[in-house]
Design goal:
Layout lengths: L1 E3 L5 E8 L10 H16 L8 E5 L7 H9 L6 E4 L5 H14 L5 E9 L15 H4 L4 H15 L4 H15 L13 H6 L2 E3 L2 E2 L8 E10 H7 L4 E10 L13 H14 L8 E3 L5 H10 L8 H6 L10 E2 L4 H5 L6 H13 L13 E8 L9 E9 L2
Parallel strand pairs: 3-4, 3-5, 10-11, 10-12
Antiparallel strand pairs: 1-9, 2-8, 2-9, 5-8, 6-7, 9-13, 12-13
Helix pairs in contact: 1-2, 3-13, 6-10
């Protein structure tokens, strides 16, 4: 199954986030309201001008969006809450873009928020009715299996896996919104606590809390208000396809299909992208997604990493924010935070981590582990700097 967006131009004109981390005393509203207020202020709009709101989360409970808007004094307008696991926030952006492109809204707000400290640590709770979950499968174990297969098939080493985390922490050190803001060495990564062989603690994204928000605006309104921002040239949402039996763990079909459709919508390919924020929940994920998103040819992900082709000075900068490994992964917030990061680079507002001359950015996030599915949901966006 796939949904795409076409029609009127829709631009992200502002975005904001809070620093990802452990905000144990905050409510969901407490996390999200500051990000929403800043996004509204940066867009130069009043809350009364919003036509629709979409709120992505995974663990916020009922009416998360309405609880947030209540604190802002916003009511009456349609509010849609989205649960698509890690892809929830990105799905909210997709729906906001769709609403604008289809003429159902001129100004839409997309929110992503989650509070993982409510679980007290450990792996995220999964749906107990799933047969794989019943047999003890958790996300670190799934990615560890992918890592073992990758090491075998690609003739890679554990040092290559560690290098992903080293790059992420180096990028994250320049990001004031990241949960981790210090560089690490390969030895630090490999000597950190074992989680699921071959993955160590520093190769797994940290749990935490966070929120982000973006304003999506119709082209006519954007021009009238003199806003710049970035135009959405592709917005794709795919769900997984059930397959029993063998599945190639190094070929995530849902991400490949979503990326291919996004490139077709955007009228270009991966070679046209300057900034990519992808779903690096574990170090191995980044290498697998190099190939799935067409960043590198199949079988060449490790060589691209080793040659520095996915960092500053290379072909494309992957996860300049530090990615989920450094910035943190408060699930429902991550997809929206990726879009905010893309906006800041395309508006030359990313500070010390700015990708110079960035014209196009891609964001990618997948969601959910379900028995028989590659992933439950995948959302890919491609944005282009407005003139």
């Amino acid at each position: 199954m796939t949904t795409t967006t076409t029609g009127n131009a829709a631009s992200v004109v502002s975005g904001a986030m809070i620093r990802m981390g452990k905000h144990r005393e905050s409510s969901y509203s407490g996390l999200a309201v500051p990000a929403v207020r800043r996004a509204l202020r940066d867009a130069g709009i009043e809350k009364s001008e919003l036509d629709a709101v979409f709120c992505g989360h995974a663990f916020g409970g009922m009416l998360t969006g309405q609880r947030i808007l209540k604190e802002l004094g916003v009511g009456h307008i349609p509010v849609t809450n989205v649960d698509n696991a890690c892809s929830g926030g990105a799905t909210a952006v997709h729906l906001a873009v769709q609403a604008v492109q289809e003429g159902r809204a001129e100004i839409a707000l997309a929110i992503g928020v989650d509070k993982l400290t409510q679980f007290g640590g450990g792996t995220l709770p999964l749906v107990q009715e799933d047969p794989e979950v019943q047999n003890g499968v958790v996300m670190p174990a799934i990615y560890a299996m992918r890592a073992q297969r990758f090491l075998h098939e690609r003739k890679a080493t554990v040092s290559d896996l560690a290098a992903v985390s080293v790059k992420a922490r180096r990028h994250g050190a320049a990001n004031p919104y990241a949960q981790f803001q210090s560089e690490v060495t390969e030895a630090d990564v490999l000597n950190s606590r074992p989680i699921s062989d071959p993955l160590t603690l520093m190769q797994c994204c940290p749990t935490g809390d966070g929120a982000a928000a973006v304003i999506v605006m119709a082209e006519g309104v954007r021009r009238r208000r003199g806003q710049k921002g970035m135009r959405t040239v592709a917005s794709v949402l795919h769900s997984g396809q059930f397959e029993a039996g063998f599945r190639n763990m190094l070929r995530p079909e849902i991400s490949r299909a979503s990326a291919q459709e996004a490139y077709e919508q955007a009228g270009g390919g991966s070679e046209d992208i300057d900034v990519i924020e992808l779903h690096d929940a574990f170090s191995i994920a980044e290498l697998i997604y190099y190939e799935a998103l067409g960043i590198s040819p199949d079988g060449e992900a490790v060589s691209w990493l080793r040659q520095g082709r996915t960092t500053y000075g290379g072909d494309v900068v992957v996860n300049p924010s530090g990615g989920l490994l450094s910035k943190g992964h408060p699930v429902g917030a991550s997809g929206v935070a990726q879009v905010v990061e893309a906006l800041w680079h395309l508006e030359d507002r990313a500070g010390a981590r700015q990708v110079e001359g960035a014209r196009r950015a891609l964001t990618h996030v997948t969601g959910g582990g379900i028995a028989g599915l590659d992933h439950g949901a995948c959302t890919v966006h491609i944005f282009e700097r407005n003139a």
